[in-house]
Specification:
The complex is a heterodimer of chains A (402) and B (292). Chain A is α/β, with parallel strands linked by helices. Chain A has helices at 2-22, 41-55, 68-79, 106-112, 147-153, 161-173, 188-196, 201-205, 216-230, 243-251, 262-265, 305-308, 311-325, 327-334, 340-352, 361-364, 367-382, 387-396; strands at residues 27-31, 58-61, 86-90, 139-146, 177-179, 255-261, 276-279, 293-296, 299-303, 357-358. In chain A, helix 7 packs across helix 9, helix 9 (216-230) crosses helix 17 and helix 17 (367-382) packs antiparallel against helix 18. Classes of the chains: A alpha/beta (402), B mainly alpha (292).
Chain lengths: 402, 292
């Protein structure tokens, strides 16, 4: 009896293995940031499903929110030779530099598949002048403001530094947190925004090598964080709370302002679309440009060299890349879901600052130097770290190369 | 002889040894190699040879590393006192309870089966300044809200859940040890007039020596590896990097700063400290046990 049972089980195993090997199509691995609260998360999943149905191929997707863990996960996968076949990842930044040898330039894809004629967007070209990815969505960063709270305390919107200081005092008196931020978790936006708000174009675009002096505006800009801290602009636990908590404070109208990116706008509740606007961070020096803001394209779809070199998956990977980055599908992935005054104000910021939109400094920084810079922000805020010393430490790590 | 042919046993021992070699010892050796070179980025190749430069930086030029080392070192005696110590006290008390031992086992062991992330989030909500449970209680009592994760309090507030979570673990091990002591020994001791604290000191503790050594070793090595709860409750060593432990700082350097060589060096320091602490603890406990 046991022998018969063992024979039957072996047969069943053999049959299932045969069935697997006879299955049609290939399986592709994908990874992206179209997940969580991203406006296009559902669209992305639906597009993948539709592509699977159309081609008979399968997709194993590992998308997640685009934070440091996401970056580390993608880079680790590349390090282990376990990278995705098609990925939506950072481009034209220090984060993308390590993967460039393991992804395929768009020009090379077009040469092999001329009928596709994939778009080559030079705005996302890497320092070697080659375009490796196809962007589908631009981004911008700005100061989000709950205008109903400004009306409540009788404050002007922070279009100037003086307005900002005045509003902070009024909000503090009213028991409302003026600016929601966590320096222990995500100091990125204010760190960069204060530098931009103090810099001329030349200063902001400077990328000093190790040993070169840095623009004084960078130091002066970060020093403003301490000034804001002393004014009581931040939550009491700004150096110990988390971004999730502070963002919720803004959405719940317990905080008046938050410096963040266009992805944050997608998480604003629909009922707040007409009571929320976004503005450039107010300038703090005469050389700075009032319309300047951070934005551009910083992410795109790639095909990995590993998938390209595999004859079984190459066609499928290229087909999926074209499917996601052209026509209506690309438009659907680019969509932001917010409307009302929030959308209008973002257009106003973009239109006014068309010629003064810059990529964040942090994107050009070596990750070690960037991490060190961010680790100094809590100290700069509470006055235990001198901004000049913090920048000296950053420059010792050669953030823009030696 | 039950097992005359021991070759099958060798096969069973070699298989796990092979797995350990592939998944533990080989990465460890690579880690040592990586710590000696400059490596930029998570997928960077070893570059300039640094020798022991990373170790020198750790001990002489990195104040955050020194803070992390101090925090982890302090965690060792705290774990011994509050995890093993409290576990022992609870085990001795529960052992003298005639009914309901199983109930106490479950209740005290329960925190172990909850994921550290869940406990971390729970304590984050306790400590939150705006709307946190502790501050709600303070307001209810008519007191001012407290910044529980201030520079002065943060370490203590982090250590509390770390210690609390593992008390039940040592309690269960020690209770099993106490239960394993034959009743006849206690009966003989009672006839000789040993009761209460004398019974614990002269009978229970000496017979628990090996279990205590195991618990103490686990506690001190566990203290050096603390990672999960602090990383959830206090991001990036908040506030101001003051609550980094060796584990959280290693993770921060390797995966956030992508300073792989330095992260590797920290991980080696963690292993060396763990081995040193475990050896020291065993030697001390054995000497103490012989004195009993």
């Amino acid at each position: 009896m046991r022998k018969i049972l063992a024979l039957l089980l072996s047969l069943a195993l053999l049959l299932s293995l045969s069935a697997l090997s006879l299955a049609e199509g290939v399986t592709l691995k994908t990874v992206s940031t179209f997940a969580g609260t991203d406006a296009a998360a559902e669209t992305y999943v639906a597009l993948l499903k539709a592509w699977e149905d159309k081609t008979g191929n399968k997709i194993e997707d590992a998308s997640s929110t685009g934070d440091e863990v996401f970056k580390a996960g993608v880079l680790n996968d590349f390090a282990a030779g376990n990278e995705a076949d098609v990925l939506f990842f950072f481009a034209k930044t220090a984060d993308s530099a390590p993967i460039l040898g393991k992804v395929v330039p768009i020009e090379e894809i077009n040469a092999a598949y001329p009928e596709l004629n994939l778009p080559i967007n030079t705005a996302i070209a890497e320092p070697d002048g080659v375009v490796y990815s196809i962007p589908v969505r631009p981004f911008w960063e700005g100061l989000f403001c709950n205008i109903d709270l400004f009306e409540q305390v009788g404050a002007e919107l922070p279009t100037t530094w003086e307005n900002l200081v005045d509003a902070i005092a009024r909000f503090k008196d009213a028991g409302i947190v003026p600016i929601a931020v966590s320096f222990s978790d995500i100091p990125h936006y204010i760190a960069d925004a204060t530098v931009l708000s103090a810099s001329s174009e030349a200063d902001y675009l400077a990328r000093p090598k190790a040993g070169d002096p840095i623009p004084q505006a960078w130091i002066d800009g970060n020093a403003k964080i301490n000034e804001l801290y002393e004014l009581g602009a931040f939550p009491v636990d700004v150096n110990a709370t988390t971004e999730a908590v502070t963002s919720q404070m803004f959405r719940d109208k317990k905080a008046a302002m938050q410096m963040d990116g266009s992805w944050f706008a997608n998480g604003i509740p629909e009922e707040n679309y007409d009571t929320t606007v976004v503005l450039p961070f107010p300038v703090t020096s005469a050389e700075a440009q009032p319309t300047a803001f951070m934005g551009g394209v910083s992410m795109g779809f790639y095909v990995s060299r590993k998938a390209w070199d595999d004859p079984a998956r190459r066609d499928a990977a290229v087909d999926l890349l074209a499917y996601l980055t052209t026509g209506d599908n690309a438009v659907a992935l680019a969509a932001f879901q917010f409307k009302g005054k929030l959308l209008e104000s973002s257009f106003e910021m973009l239109n006014a600052g068309l010629t003064t939109m810059y990529g964040p400094i942090q994107d050009a920084m070596d990750p070690e130097a960037r991490s060190y810079w961010f680790s100094q922000i809590p100290g700069i805020a509470d006055g235990t770290v001198v901004p000049a010393d913090a920048w000296k430490g950053v420059m010792e790590l050669a953030p823009f190369g030696k | 002889m039950l097992y005359r042919d021991r070759r099958p046993l060798l096969v069973f021992l070699l298989l796990p040894l092979l797995l350990m070699a592939v998944f533990l010892y080989y990465p460890f050796v690579v880690n040592i190699y990586n710590s000696l070179f400059d490596i930029k980025g998570l997928i960077g190749k070893p570059g300039e040879f640094l020798g022991l430069g990373n170790f020198s930086t750790f001990f002489t030029r990195d104040p955050v590393a020194m803070r992390a080392l101090r925090n982890s070192a302090l965690m060792m005696p705290l774990s011994l006192v509050f995890q093993v110590g409290l576990g022992l006290v609870l085990a001795l008390m529960v052992d003298s309870v005639r009914r309901g031992q199983q109930f106490f086992r479950i209740v005290f062991f329960f925190p172990i089966v909850i994921s550290a992330t869940a406990i971390g989030l729970m304590f984050s909500l306790f400590y939150s300044y705006e709307g946190g449970m502790l501050n709600q209680l303070m307001v209810l009592m008519g007191r001012d809200k407290v910044l529980w994760l201030s520079k002065e309090r943060a370490y203590t507030m982090l250590v509390i859940p770390v210690l609390w979570q593992y008390v039940g673990f040592y309690f269960v091990i020690l209770l099993a040890g106490v239960n394993a002591i034959p009743d006849e020994i206690f009966e003989s001791a009672a006839m000789d007039g040993a009761a209460g604290l004398r019974r614990i000191w002269y009978i229970t503790l000496p017979l628990l020596r090996d279990v205590l050594i195991t618990c103490a070793t686990l506690a001190v090595t566990g203290a050096i590896k603390v990672f999960d709860l602090p990383s959830v409750i206090a991001r990036n060593g908040a506030p101001n990097g003051l609550t980094h432990f060796l584990g959280t700082y290693m993770h921060n350097q390797a995966f956030v700063a992508q300073n792989v060589d330095y992260g590797s060096a920290i991980s080696i320091i963690i292993v060396l400290l763990g081995v040193l602490a475990a050896g020291l603890m065993t030697a001390l406990m054995r000497r103490g046990g012989e004195a009993l």
